Amino acid sequence: MENNLRKLLSSFRNGIFLFLFLPVYLSAEPGFKLRSIDVRAYPEVKVRFHSNTIVGPQGFILSEELSSVVRLTESYRLDPLESKNPVHLYISIPSYTNAEDRRWIIQLANQLVKISEQTGGTSKLQIQSDTNKHSFERIRSNVLDISFPFPKEPAPVYPIRNWENFLEGIPKNTSTEDHILIFVSFSPEWQDRFEIPELAKRIREKNLQLIVLAPSSLEATKLASYANGNHYPITKSDSYSELFSYLRLLGNPDYELVYFSPWNLSQWKTNSVAGSLVSVDQGIRFEFRYELSFFKSVYLKLSDPLFFFPVSLFFIFLCLAALYYLRGYEEREQGILTTPPSSLESFDRKEELQVYDRMYGETMEKAARDREIALTIAEKTPPAGTSYSYAVLLRRDGNQNSEQYSLQFEEMTIGKSESNHLVLHDPSVAGLHAKIKNKKGKYILFDCVSETGVYLNGKKLLRPKVLHNLDEIQIGKTVLSFRGR
Q: Rg of the chain over CA atoms, in angstroms?
């Protein structure tokens, strides 16, 4: 195994030497990648794409095809964007067997991360191991030197399983930027090669580009092919120049093609238009397609901030005006006076109350007294439960009781606000979360309509309940134990 690794690293060193000290004449395979098509201002069409080759603005023929009929555009504008295209790398490299191997593996990772930094992207590094997990988030090239804490692990027997674990920590790429997964392996055979189709499927689902840097083998070719990626044989010195050139070209700025459609179609009818940008002199042919439909036009209009916000404000004011009108209409239907009564009406109403009081001996004051009597009787009815002469709350931190709070007030409030008797510094706790009320020696727990709720003995508190000795109260992440005697 060590002899094979030395041969592979010898080829790697030659490739690095050529890349660093000799001019690179190798270029990546010419190709285009469509970023986005903007038809919000149709018939003006804006096409953003990336090219692996330098595209000149002249010498192109731009056409659109609709129902097998082709029309040429009168004019177009093709300009590179100002900012570079960020290239985000997720690199998985094996460990080393000696100091020489360690130095060259770190040099490979350093060159890859440096290319990502030059484009404004980020990098994540994984050291392959069958037993341990070693990953470095947002690693920088300046730390990948001799002093880098490179863990020494045995050569992985199951590289695909390592890559699957690495893939779990990578989020799905939902942007138009390039997120590239680079797998490096020195082994010509993989014991877990039967898992290749599933790994390739997960790579495609996460919208990642795959690059396999490994010896020439059927397994490496299959993985790159199934995941629509590229395989660079690690034993060829030209592979490193091609890989670095490809990554550098990905970091070049995107191009924006702006033109007016020769068809000038209606945005509210369904049409599928195919565009083609061809240059015979440069040997370039770029094809794209966009659709116009009623639903897509509505979506584009609503997603436009210059249209969405004014229309939203208009509908909000319209709803408020409708609510205000309906409220006034309901008051008029019920005969409620919206203006204060005159002095004459007040005098007549007072005389009617006096006559009613003389005839029946009942007025509003007597009704108020009846309500007070009813409340007094309710207060005299004691709630069911055990009475305690003294009670405390024990605040438990882990498995130990850290603080004790005496329930000496008639009403003890609990919450995040500093005005409470018991303050809990917890973001999930409301300002006034709960309270405990002492009613003739019986302590009643209330939930003050909090969002996360109050739990008594593991069950959510749905109505006020009388506390008993050894009851446990959970508020947010805090557990309080009730003790009474």
A: 38
At 385 the three-state DSSP class reads coil
Q: What is the dihedral of CA 152, 154, 160, 166, to 10 degrees?
A: -20
Segment 347-375, tens digit of pLDDT: 555 665 565 555 545 555 555 555 555 55
The answer to whether 116 touches 100, Cβ cutoff 8 Å, is no
Assigned CATH for 87-251: 3.40.50.410
- Per-residue confidence (pLDDT) for residue 92, from 0 to 100: 95
Tell me how far apart the alpha carbons of residues 103 and 101 are, in angstroms, rounded to a whole number: 6
Binning the chain into helix, strand and coil, the percentages to the nearest 5 are 35, 30, 40
β-partners of residue 444 are 437, 466
Tokens 């036009």 — which residue?
A: 297
Q: What pLDDT, on a 0 to 100 scale, did the predictor assign at position 164?
A: 93
Cβ 271 vs Cβ 279: under 8 Å: no
Distance CA 344, CA 341 (A): 8
- Residue ranges of the alpha helices (H) in 41-158? 99-118
Q: Give the tokens for residue 197.
A: 């189709």
Furthest CA-CA distance within the chain = 118
* pLDDT tens-digit series, residues 132-181: 889 999 999 999 998 898 998 888 889 999 999 999 999 999 988 899 99
Contact 294, 268 (CB under 8 A): yes
Nearest to 15, CA basis, from 213, 152, 179, 159:
213
Of 3.60.21.10, 3.30.420.40, 2.60.200.20, 2.160.10.10, which CATH number belongs to 391-484? 2.60.200.20
Segments making up each domain of the chain, as ranges: 32-84+255-299, 87-251, 391-484
Please give the torsion angle defined by the CA atoms of residues 459, 461, 463 and 469, in that order, rounded to the nearest 10 degrees: 80
Distance of CA 176 to the CA centre of its chain: 16
Residue 267 CA to residue 354 CA, distance in Å, equals 75
DSSP 371: H
The rounded distance, in Å, linking the Cα atoms of 114 and 62 is: 37
Give yes or no for a contact between 196 and 219, defined as CB atoms under 8 angstroms apart.
yes
Of the candidates 235, 251, 223, which has an alpha carbon nearest to the alpha carbon of residue 89?
251
Q: What CA–CA distance (Å, rounded) separates 219 from 194?
A: 9
Handedness of CA 438, 439, 444, 450 (dihedral sign): negative
Domain 32-84+255-299 classified CATH 3.40.50? no
Cβ-based burial of 216 (10 A; exposed 0-12, middle 13-18, buried ≥19): middle
Gap between the Cα atoms of 212 and 352, Å rounded: 97
For residue 188, what is the DSSP state? S
> How far apart are the C-alpha atoms of 71 and 406, rounded to whole Å?
86
